[in-house]
Amino acid sequence: MLLVYCQALTPRLQYIVNFFSAALFDTQIQITTDKEEYRQASIPKLNYSEEEICEGELMIRPVSLLFETGIRFREICCFEINYHKAFFQTGGDLHFDLFAASFYLLSRYEEYLPHEKDEYGRYAHTQSLAYREGFLHKPLVDIWVQEFKKILQRRFPGMVFKNRGFVNMLTYDIDMAYSYLHKGALRNLGGAMRSLIKGQWKSLAERALVLLRIRKDPFDCYEWLDALHLYCRLKPYFFFLVAKQRSQYDKNTPTNARAFRDIIEYYSTTYTVGIHPSWRSYNRPALMKEELEWIEAVADKKIVSSRQHYIRFTLPVTYRQLIDIGIQKDFSMGYGGINGFRASVCTPFYWYDLEREAATGLMIYPFCFMDANAFYKQRYTPGQAYAELMQYYDEVKRTKGTMITIWHNTLLGTAAGTEGWKEMFELFMKETAYWDAYSSS
After folding, report:
1. Is 136 exposed, middle or buried, given 0-12, 13-18 or 19+ CB atoms closer than 10 A?
2. pLDDT at 209
3. What number of CA atoms fall less than 13 Å from residue 383's CA on the CB side?
């Protein structure tokens, strides 16, 4: 048990204390604004104020962030402590305001400020503090949590902490369930004509062989994935793009294709299925709700998980929209152009609506690696992608966090240009399954 003293209790402070409670303890950290109650308490004490109160207390001197309302630009200067970056430098035992710095990163405070968009209208990673200061590849908040735990252990040796374990969470985005099959005669005819005009004879021949059922569709790797999941004892999430109208960025298998519905039905009974809201549904709540209702009808169960197509979201609008249609878990917190920790964390956390100054019930599951980023944007070879992947694996496992990765059937099948990616993924699955089993034995 830990008692925190502060001069004023605000929604921001309560939110971040709740986060640290969930990360470190099985019980809730208590907060008081009563100085005498704090002084008389016999449990471990943390003073979050400018004034020293009693002997034996741990002290964090605060900056003003958690006692403010509204959003304003802040000049942030980073420094190093224990070989890791920190900011909001103050006095006290930790030498920086741990609570305010963590809140700044988790709330995505900087994304509410004026900023440049990338080519898809998203918050550009180059605008972020983590990218500019070189800690995008680190789950910095979780590192701070671990350092804070060590300080508490030294100051209060009898304190009991939560036994937190590493989690490897596999997720898939099914943007296009099939390359050629189940797309209808017109789409296949159009695709064949484009290949013919461009002289893409291999593609033309492959399409013919797949449609004649002589060769397997290059995006159909589902049986192989199922075997890997069984071998590695993993229960992944599958997010399906189910746009009813095809567009430049929504090219999923038609929703009236029986085979497409069969896949959704199968995975909804075997694993966890989520909605992958279409590009067209962005800022169109009615359309997003329509897509959610369709996949719920096919899956025959309530869907509470989502991930934005192209990782296209804007705070706070998109998250409010998800809450309004009944989504409880969102897996979009990451960048659609580079791998890393967008919120500098590898622990699921509740979203804080900064404009309304209120914690919400929407749980955010941050990812750190997406194969499409490595393949299309970072232009990595499978070997380079594997090295980056294992770097994140080591970082997350060190903090006993949750490693969430995103994979696409379009890159794990047999499509031209994706050679080696399937083998890289299988190596990652089997290597990490071995080490996870070894470390837990």
Report:
1. buried
2. 85
3. 0
| pLDDT at residue number 441 | 42
> What pLDDT is attached to residue 197?
72
Low-confidence spans in the chain with pLDDT less than 70: 185-186, 188-193, 195-196, 201, 203-205, 207, 434-441
Helices 11-24 and 140-155, packing angle to 10 deg? 80
At 193 the pLDDT is 65
Give CA separation, 269 vs 4, 171, 227, 384, in Å. Answer: 45, 16, 16, 35
Domain-wise residue ranges, the chain: 3-155, 167-179+217-440, 186-215
- Whether the bond between 316 and the residue before it is cis, its omega within 30 degrees of 0, is yes
What's the token pair of residue 313?
Answer: 């979201």
What pLDDT shows up at residue 204? 64
Q: What are the b/e assignments for 339-372, b being 16+ CB within 10 Å? A: bbbbbbbbbbbebbbbeeeebbebbbbbbbbbbb
Tell me the backbone φ, ψ of residue 123, rounded to 5 degrees. -60, 125
Taking only the tens place, the pLDDT of each residue in 211-229 is 788 899 999 999 999 999 9
pTM: 0.95
- Give pLDDT, residue 190: 59
Pick the CATH number of 167-179+217-440 from 3.40.1360.10, 3.20.20.370, 3.40.50.2300, 3.30.300.30: 3.20.20.370
* In the block, residue with structure tokens 């590898």: 346
What does the alpha-carbon distance between residue 419 and residue 413 come to, in Å, rounded to a whole number?
A: 9
Q: Where are the alpha helices (DSSP H) in 7-139?
A: 11-24, 35-40, 98-106, 129-132
Distance CA 146, CA 250 (A): 42
Q: Is residue 4 classed as helix, strand or coil in its secondary structure?
A: strand
